[in-house]
Amino acid sequence: MQSISVNASTHPAQDRVPPQAVEAETMLIGAILINNEAMRDVMETVDADAFYLRQNKIVFQAILDLFIENKPVDVIILKDELSKRGKLEEAGGAEYLSSLIDAVPSTENATHYAAIVKDKAIQRNIANVCNTILRDVMDATQSSDEVLDNAERMIFETIRKRPAKNLMKMSDILHTAFHKLTEIRDRKGRLLGLSTGFYEMDDVTCGLQGSHVIVIAGRPSMGKTSLAMRIIENVALDQNKGVLFFSLEMSAEMIAQIMLCSHCRVSFHKLRQGMISDQELQHLLLAAGRFSEAPIFIDDSSDMTLLDIRARARRIKAEHDIQLVVIDYLQQIQVRNVESRQQEIAMISRSLKAIAKELNIPVIALAQLNRDVEKRSEEHIPR
Fold first, then answer.
1. E strands, the chain, where?
2. Which residue of 131, 174, 290, 364 is most buried, as measured by CB atoms within 10 A?
3. 1 falls in which pLDDT band (50, 70, 90)?
4. Which of 90, 146, 249, 280 is catalytic?
5. pLDDT class for 381, splitting at 50, 70, 90?
6. What's the mean pLDDT when you consider all of the chain?
7. Which residues pair with 367 in a beta bridge?
């Protein structure tokens, strides 16, 4: 009987066999050997690393390389290719290659075999991540922050490896698009999304729409946070839509004070000095009563990570059906284990877009621009 070799590093525990589907792996490879065109349907779903058996990893990679070179692949050609690479025995030998096509019921099931193989690969990856996290927890040389940072990085990598499900047929897209166009026509010029309360901005954006990420960028002390608060006020008070505000810089109490002063046209500086009049105080009290009933949720944690933001946005969406997320500000989000600031911002941007798409709500992110641009010559200052 042909011996089977397993990559020991994939075992989540010594006494358990990790998730795997050896039969689906062999059926998939056999289907491709019988019908090479099946590779076109599965190469976006699986790669060699998705296979559990080491010999299947080697065989699939050889088939894929031949396919990319537009060469036909069958058992004889594959055997010759593996022999040239010096990996024929490591891949199970000639007898194993011949056995791959013997039990294939139908090549039409290749995509289903690939989905099974990919699913088991993700499960093994999750098990490996959990084992690594447990090992790090038991390692007395690492702090809890270091363990959490490493866990966050590995979980995000696992999420990125999930198969894409956004491929749609044109007929389905047109059906949805035409339905949307009909809704737009029926609105007779009304906004498609949430109103910001600023008419010129609404004219440009057609309102804040689901799955969109809007970045409000500017140099320090230019009014980014004030603009965001006015948008929150308009959405929550005037449209009665829930808003989740992540304030990574200011406390929730200060935000509430600023929003009240902005709403009542009262100087925040005078409020901090205790110099407001009785009439202004009465206006603030009346506004406080209105704001207390508004669906505004503020999280002023100063050490938020991408996972924290995503998890809390999901929970508040499920509990209160929020329609807008605002983050102040982008550079304060905790991201570690990245090589450069550019990679950090790219990771944050991708994650915020994923949140917007998953919850189907707009996400507003405030961003700080560097003051160094003010040191440039006049012709190089952005306008």
1. 213-218, 242-247, 296-299, 322-328, 363-368
2. 364
3. very low
4. 249
5. low
6. 82
7. 217
249 part of the active site:
yes
CA angle 241, 327, 309 (to 5 degrees): 90
- What global pTM score does this model have? 0.56
The per-residue pLDDT for 76 is 92
CATH code linked to domain 208-375: 3.40.50.300
DSSP string, 270-307: HHHHT---HHHHHHHHHHHHHHHTS-EEEE--SS-BHH
- Answer whether 36's CB lies under 8 Å from 64's CB: no
- Between CA 202 and CA 174 the distance in angstroms is 26
C-alpha torsion 341→343→344→346, nearest 10: 120
Average pLDDT over residues 300-325: 84
For the domain spanning 8-160, the CATH number is 1.10.860.10
Listing DSSP states for 38-50 in one string gives: HHHHHTTT--GGG
What pLDDT score was predicted for residue 2? Answer: 46
The domain ranges of the chain are 8-160, 208-375
Neighbours of 62 (CB within 10 A): 22
